[in-house]
Amino acid sequence: MKFAVIVFPGSNCDVDMYHAIKDELGEQVEYVWHDTESLDEFDGILLPGGFSYGDYLRTGAIARFSKVMQAVVKAAEAGKPILGVCNGFQILLEAGLLPGAMRRNESLSFICKPVELKVENNQTIFSTAYSLGETISIPVAHGEGNYYCDEETLAALKENNQIVFTYQDNPNGSLEDIAGIINEKGNVLGMMPHPERAVDELLGGADGLKLFQSIVRSWREANVVKA
Amino acid sequence: MFKVKVYVTLRESVLDPQGKAVTHSLHSLNYPEVSDVRIGKYMELTIEKSERDLDEVINEICSKLLANTVIEDYRYEVEECVPQ
């Protein structure tokens, strides 16, 4: 499986994402600059964390209009798996690929620590390697991870089982403890915690690796013809 | 040429953690009469005259980029400037 790690000016978790895919997962991966027009050659798209365009105006607001985002929208429509982590999640929200918006953390502080998440849905292409209700430890590092959506959207998220991860001990004030959500179609996941920083016991834990393994597993099941 | 002043604020229904912190700070400075603070953004745009309707252009700009209408409202004022 071949992944693209999208690099915006100000991305800073692109190298971690690349490392997770290449060295820990053992799949193909390439960096793709923000002005790239086509993502046709890739099977999965990863939007890493960081501070794209210095977080000017709002987090993700400028990145959302970069050239590559048109290709990301196209890939989303084609059903390719798309994962946005942290700033990548914020960009997906701004682009309207996921519903809702981010506010400043309730404490107004930048939070950087491992947090415990509950797997709320293990039937997505991103979470089949986890058990339902499993507690996993993944680090967060953000100043704006306080997820918000209106009541109607929240009801739809619940109805369609789109809330994939919740915080056990809410660090940022996020609505309903939401840490990660998926689109209705089930191929676009956005999450504030960083699974790419939890792919090896050396890094303090490997609970994030299963997320990437889930993506590859479902892609293989769908795309590799068994002899 | 027009000078357009755009004000972007969090929607009433959305909690403003910065505004809340400033309210608390004002209370500790002994201004109990301040019951609420909402923090927003102020932007000045210079827009040249064009064939397009100005309000239409401003509303497009605001809803596409300057404000995230999921959590923010915007309003604007227009001043016509005479080029020097």
The separation of the N and C termini of chain B measures 11 Å
**What's the tally of helices of chain B?**
2
* CATH topology assignment of chain A: Rossmann fold
What is the correct CATH architecture of chain A?
3-Layer(aba) Sandwich
What's the count of strands of chain B? 3
Total of helices of chain A:
5
How many separate domains make up the residues of chain A? 1
Overall pLDDT confidence of chain A: 96
Question: For this structure, what is the CATH class of chain B?
Answer: Alpha Beta
Q: Can you tell me the number of structural domains of chain B?
A: 1
Q: In CATH, what is the class of chain A?
A: Alpha Beta
- What oligomeric state do these chains adopt? heterodimer
CATH fold-level topology of chain B:
Mth169, Chain: A
Q: What structural class results from the helix and strand content of chain A?
A: alpha/beta
Silhouette of chain A? globular
What's the architecture of chain B, going by CATH?
2-Layer Sandwich
SS-based class of chain B: alpha+beta
CATH superfamily of chain A: Class I glutamine amidotransferase (GATase) domain
For the biggest sheet of chain B, the summary is:
3 strands, antiparallel
CATH level 4 superfamily of chain B:
Phosphoribosylformylglycinamidine synthase subunit PurS
Q: What is the typical, i.e. mean, pLDDT of chain B?
A: 94
